[in-house]
Specification:
By secondary structure, the protein is mainly alpha-helical. Helices cover 54% and strands 12% of the residues. It has 15 helices and eight strands. Strands 1-2-3 form a three-stranded antiparallel β-sheet, with helices on one face. Strands 4-5-8 form a three-stranded antiparallel β-sheet, with no helix packed on it. The protein is elongated, with a radius of gyration of 37 Å.
Length: 395
Amino acid sequence: MGRHGENIRRRNDGRWEGRYKAFDKKKGRYIYRSVYGRAYEEAKEKLTKAKLGLTYQLEKKQRREEADSQKSAASSSLMLPFSHAAEEWLEEIQEKRKYSTYVKYYTVYKIHLANVVGSCSLSSASSAELEKKIFDHISEGARSESLRKSIYCVVNQVLRFANIKYSLGIPLLENPSIKPKKKTVAILSKAEQARLFSGIYHETDKYKIAVLLCLHTGLRLGELCALQWSDLDFHTMTLLVNRTVQRITVQQCQQAARTFLLESEPKSESSRRTIPLTAEMVELLAQLKGSQPYIFGGNKPLEPRTMQYWFQRIGKEAGIHGRSFHILRHTFATNCIENHMDVKSLSEILGHSDVKITLNRYVHPTMDAKRKQLGVLLDFYGQICGQAVQKRTYL
């Protein structure tokens, strides 16, 4: 008599028989097979092992079929053009990244990659073909170090996206180590600063006050142009930096482009900061106070290009030519260091995430500062010489 639901029964000869279904390759259909035992437990154990063996074989077959399917899909995906993966990647990051970051990536791809490697298949990304095309494109135009890094960054992000979406194993490109030319970052000399201050205080207006504010705080141009009266606390004499503005270029195609003014959050979390102001600076800013929300722009942020123009004009009146607005930030940082401000405080005022950035990028000791430091060493040598003379006298 069989056990219900187990397909095990006792035969007339006293043995127990367990039956299970298996596929017969020769017959091309499923058939029943049997296992036998002298006792019910023995038959059940054999039946369980037989079924487990079938399950293992079935799972093994399924895994093999899935692997073949994935291999086939991967092989098919490798034939997709680079442009296909790039467009999908751009669409995905459009909502996930800051708009200014998205526009930067979009522009880099459209100008420097779409026509160069857009038609290349993803399979070529695993060879030297893609890398050579990109390297040749960069070399031909003598691209800047920053742009070169951006190009490789976009390529690798597209490849990483394709690897995840299509289950590929394309290696990322290695950014070739090309030693960039060291740029000498200039600051305003003491004489230039004196002439600039003289021109600012001779006849003050909002643009001159804006220049003066940067010399007192090291604000970036975009941060200055986006300042609102709500960011200025007259009681605590502090300035909150929590937004920036920049003119974004959107490349529609190789020939046409459009620009617009974008107000957004600061470039990083460390850029969001509170800066103390001097009483004199607060008093000068108070002279500009009005009903409009923006300190220097009125009803909207001040156009950075407008501020650049006025800085050039103010500088020309002071006998300073060909300097960019960013020189004010460099000059502020150098002045702070030369007047013994601790680097950590300066780093936070500038909105840097690491003091190394402050030291390596914005602190440029002047010849006077170097001479002063060597003067300290001379005094030290003088003390040693004095001690040596005293010893000789006593001897």
